[in-house]
Design a protein that fits this description.
five-stranded antiparallel sheet, 25% helix, alpha+beta, Ig-like domain-containing protein, Ig_sub, 4 helices, 3 domains, seven-stranded mixed sheet, Immunoglobulin-like
Length: 317
Amino acid sequence: MSLMALWKKFTRFCFSLSAVNFQQLPSVFVKVGDQSVTLWCDQDNNQNYYMFWYRHPADSGKMELVAYSVGKDAAAIEAPFSKTKYTLTRPEVLRTSLQIHSPEAADSAVYYCASSLAQSEAYFGAGTKLTVLDAEVQPPTVKILEPSKKECKDKKGKKKKTLVCVASDFYPDHVSVSWTRNGQNITDDIQVSTDAAATAKKDGKNYKITSRLMVPIKDWVEPNINFTCTVSFFNGKSNIKKNTTYTSTFISETNILNCSLYYIKITQNAKISYTVLILKSCLYAALVCFLVWKLQVGPETSMLVLIVELLMLRDFF
């Protein structure tokens, strides 16, 4: 490898170590029929002359390159996207914008800003979620579902109960879900499991999202512990928070006891059934050995009779 190639590789590696900070609005709302919408992006590395705009539609698993710029006042729209639909501007090295003309519902997506040196790794911002509204904004209804009385343990055998928070009938899908225990945030990913994204009903105008909280038994049987589910909903101007609370009581201790007795009964029944099966198998094997011995010592017994007896024994067992 030549000295120049080594130098390029070294400088590329050094620049890749320096992170790039981006500023993008997290959410933007527009309505079908609006003239246009503009998404802005700022980054803080003036060595990154290349800037890009990607989009990630909700119904697609792939990133799509929409537009790019190789420097100040330079812009290009990537095929197959239309130049009449999208306009990229680059008034400064550290700033770019993407304008979408006559936005439609199909333009709803997360739009990512990125930057890089020439032929080097690109850094991405957090993205702007663009929603083109074709219905009225509707905040969610939030409720907590109680766990099953028979629930005792998780897959690893740890005793627990599960609360399920359901947020439904909201539009659009700009929501996040969080849990607290007596006002303290629960950030343990093992305890909290939330849907990756809200799902829409067939009409596409009502969304639903669920989040599950696994509560250890020691918290469940202790009275007056408040478990609160909070849903943060962005209505286009500000975040609206909807929450509901479930309070533990002594009655739950009885449910845990009944649950434990239920599983003990299942375990005992399984042991009895397994023991009976082993005894029947041993008895069947002993009878088969006896019939074989009988055939050997009594030549007057025919093979046909032996087969019939074996079939009868099989049906009996």
